[in-house]
Amino acid sequence: MTTEATPIRLVQVGAGGMGQAWLRTIAAEPGAELVGLVDLNVTAAEQALAAHGLSGVVVGTSVAEVAAATGADAVVNVTVPVAHLPVNVEALASGLPVLCEKPAAPTVADALRQAAAAEAHGRLLMISQSRRYYAALDALRAEVRELGAIGSVVTEFYKAPHFGGFREEMDHVLLVDMAIHAFDAARYVTGADPVSVYCEEHNPPWSWFQADANAHAVFSFDDGSRFVFTGSWCAPGLETSWNGSWRISAERGSAAWDGGSHVSVETDALRERDIAPAAKEEIAGSLAEFLDALRTGAEPSGSARQNVRSLAMVEAAVRSAETGARVRIDEVLAEAHALAIATETDPDVRAVLERTA
């Protein structure tokens, strides 16, 4: 652990578009110091550093080599999802804790392998579910705690982005690339975990996405409540925020969040308020929790072990949309565990997987 006064020395992996957002965030965080940047394209990494006025940062293509050369304390992984497993395992095996961009991996099996690697090496692996970090979401969660048993949570997400590139060509684009934020936030707000899901997808005739850009999922949770996600990425007009629009119906009243600053609660009377943003929200909030966990040893809310169920919600919803059947989360997790054990080559990591299956 380090003291509050000592900045934690970070190596970032990935210098693409999201990587540059992380460069700005790390530079603005007094509790952290960027000492290394790793990317397969060294020129792109050097250009990214120059664009942000960052100097004295070691650039290379190997996480282990750059970390050793800089005396780094931890790694921030901002690579594409398919690279998360090898990058995280290399860092963990080098004795470095990791903060990794969501999703943990393209599959639940690979997410389980990473969580097991973190346990085997005794190092923290935290997944950055950055949309957990809003003062208004915290306020909504606190209000819901006072409303008694939850009946239903509904999230509406309607946006019309023209991304271009791979997103407009990928399968299950809304579920895979965006819905995990809402799925994870539903777990956070309710404190409950998913049991099963039924999901349908479709693509409106005007859609500019190659595959289905609309998704509608109903999850049953272990407290008996239902979480309903309904959304579209080709919905021009009356768009929601990027966090969606939320309504919670509970035993002693209802609560709503517009996805921005406004929270409404009605029990015996209607109370509405605008919540001022926290000092550190989105990825800045994620980074702050990671640094605090390194200093205190506390388990962060986004630890890889806890985050697996949010990713399992996505995989189950995709499976339901493909088969037209209700899918149980525990079946997805059981199959993923079996696959993780079968594909893991490190005996120490496999032992963790076999113990936790």
From TrEMBL:
<keyword id="KW-0560">Oxidoreductase</keyword>
<dbReference type="Pfam" id="PF01408">
    <property type="entry name" value="GFO_IDH_MocA"/>
</dbReference>
<dbReference type="Pfam" id="PF22725">
    <property type="entry name" value="GFO_IDH_MocA_C3"/>
</dbReference>
<comment type="similarity">
    <text>Belongs to the Gfo/Idh/MocA family.</text>
</comment>
<dbReference type="GO" id="GO:0000166">
    <property type="term" value="F:nucleotide binding"/>
</dbReference>
<dbReference type="InterPro" id="IPR051317">
    <property type="entry name" value="Gfo/Idh/MocA_oxidoreduct"/>
</dbReference>
<feature type="domain" description="GFO/IDH/MocA-like oxidoreductase">
    <location>
        <begin position="146"/>
        <end position="255"/>
    </location>
</feature>
<dbReference type="GO" id="GO:0016491">
    <property type="term" value="F:oxidoreductase activity"/>
</dbReference>
<dbReference type="InterPro" id="IPR055170">
    <property type="entry name" value="GFO_IDH_MocA-like_dom"/>
</dbReference>
<dbReference type="InterPro" id="IPR036291">
    <property type="entry name" value="NAD(P)-bd_dom_sf"/>
</dbReference>
<dbReference type="InterPro" id="IPR000683">
    <property type="entry name" value="Gfo/Idh/MocA-like_OxRdtase_N"/>
</dbReference>
<feature type="domain" description="Gfo/Idh/MocA-like oxidoreductase N-terminal">
    <location>
        <begin position="9"/>
        <end position="127"/>
    </location>
</feature>
<keyword id="KW-0520">NAD</keyword>
<protein>
    <submittedName>
        <fullName>Gfo/Idh/MocA family oxidoreductase</fullName>
    </submittedName>
</protein>
